[in-house]
# Entry
Amino acid sequence: MTRENIFKTYLEDPLLIEKNYITQEKIDKLKIIEQSGVKLIEVFKLAINGNIDGETEGVISRKINQYLNK
Amino acid sequence: MIIEKIELENFMCYAGKSSMEFTEGINVIIGDNGYGKSKLYDAFYWVMYDQVFVPEKKEFQNTKAVKSKIISDKAKSNAKDGKVSTSVSITFHNLEKDNVYILERKYTANILDGKIVETNDSEFTVMKKDLSYLNAKMVNDEEEKRRIVSNILPPKMKDYLWFQGEQVESIIDFNKQDTLTKAINVLSSITRYDELKEIAAAAAKSGNTEYDREVRRLSKDIDKSEELGKQKTKLEERVADLQKDEKEVNENLSRAEARCEELLNKQADAQKVNELQERKKGVFNLLTELNEALKEEQFSFHRKMFRNKWVLKGTESLHAEFSNRFSIYENRKLEKAAEIKATLAAEDAVVKKLQTRLPLDVPEPIYVQRMLDEEKCLVCDREAKKYSEEWNKIKELIDRPDKKLKTAEDEPISKQNFNDDFKRLYQNGLALTHRIEEIDSDIKETLKKISSINTKIKDANKQMTKVEEDIQKLLSDTSLTLDDATNIRNEYSVQNKKSKDFRDNLNKITQQIEHFKSTLKSVNDQLKELVTGEIPKWLIEKKDVLNDFESIASSTRDRVFNNLISQLEKEANSHYEAMTSGNKSTRGQIKLRRLPNGNFMPEIIDNSGVPLLGSNTSNLILVKLATIMAIISAKSNDGVVSFYTLITDAPTSVFGEDYTMGFCKTISKVYRQSIIMSKEFYKNQNLRNELLTNPDIKIGKVFMITPSIPETERSNRNNLSTKIEALN
# Structure
């Protein structure tokens, strides 16, 4: 299971569209290496990449926190 | 990664040097029981894990424990003073990267004065070729060696890829609810989603804490906010505790429900077992009665020898003979009597005749004698010369017939008179003659009765054997014990009651959680109302994003897991169908049933989704194998397990020949390479031919192994070696 696969499964969640985070068209085109401009989606990436790269939960949380504090 | 070769030297029954080369596809090592299949499996296992299976202990033991037992007896007996060793090396080839790893394990013992001096440890070496055509280099770093071994066969996957036939049952244990979940966790990527879910939960918690802090900081009534904050913490703790309880009760409920289900599944089988037990009891009673009757007949048989006069059997002619002789005796007696009567009559006639001439004793006998002496009749004074007619006539007067008469009357018919005895004997014999005539039919009738009892006993014994076999088969097929069968109904009631109690308790806890959550919401609202000024938008956004992240991580994990389960179910059914294609009695399809605690349990259902009861052991094992294959292949994109080799010793022995070909076809499709040891192909030539020629099987190398000494004649193993013959 690649990080791209995991990312895609996260993007399948209906909540993203329900809460107007992003549109389906954009989701279809989105790749993990591209900037989405959506904070929640960027949080997904930080978590997925961090987990696959073997970072600890603490490190990943800190990165997410830093990102959202911007 | 495929295994290209295994080389053995003096390893257990493989005396001397032996090797086998393997290719992609299904590689099969064929041999009967005791031919060395398991020892070959041990050879693979020993190289990787420094352990061999010890049948007496029923466990894998380290070289330290088995020591020189792993060296071939032939090698040990032939060795002179010095060293004797065994080694096994396996060549792994990563076809994608074209690099090669040669793993070798060696054990050496010393021989001093003909006695073996054992060492404790084996030596393990790893050689690596970065490209297959380059020279191999020794890997010296222990950490690197461990990494290579772990990469070739990750420890957590070992149980699902290298196993012996008997282990299949425990890989997915239907009695332990989480074994399938564990297998899914180990063999699929779901753990990553679990980890992400935990990361999201921690991030959301941290975001909420930060937000709450800000809410309290902006409060117009700090004291009240503090108080509400404490209340909130308590409520959150209470909810967390209740959620823990909820999880625990769910676990218990799952266990109880699974047990109920299991018992329900087994109830029909238990009923059958109980019925068979009842039948057995009936047959046992019948047998007891019949044996009693037979015993009685046997005693009575001896008594009848005398009571029913069977001892006289064969004496029929004696009475006839006696009767004949008695008749002769009687006739003679009658003849004698007639003779006497005739004599008497003759004598009477003579007497009568005499009396007509002269009266008795006239003349007196002394005168008659004088006449005879003087040869002259003194009555008529005429001459009567001696022996003349006249002389004889005179003599007749002296030979008195009354003397003869007396003799004839007194003469007995025989010397001794047994007449009465003979007659009694005859009469008794006559009475017995009628009994003798009946003896044959009497004996025949008795023997018929005994034979009939014996036939009934034989039938009853057959019935008993059949019932016992049926019971044993049923017990083995259903993994029931006799006690289980007896107690199943009681235990079902107990488990059912438990389920009900757990469900009631669960409802109570759920209601409490709802109640506390609702209170928590009210506390949050109150806290919000106390806020003066504005909470920073970025903080609100952060909190929302993190809570949504938690929610999405959780729902994504569940969605992925459910999809995985559906995919596994589909895959498992495809494997199950392929493996069981050779057996028309196989029914149903695999359903992975979700338990209240989130675990899954495989079961067999019919087309309408109703669980099938009383599936046999073979079916259940195939369900497990199909599920394991599905889980392993689910990791790959194309459904083929490319990186790992399946090695299994006697996997088909647990489910019989009918499924062997189906198993091989499926294995050759699911695994890029597999090495299986099997006796089924040894016994069945047709099956072996099919293995080698069936186009649906991607066949690798096939070997036949044969020991130099049959297992039954191995009191001395000093000449034991194993011949390896390539069949293709």
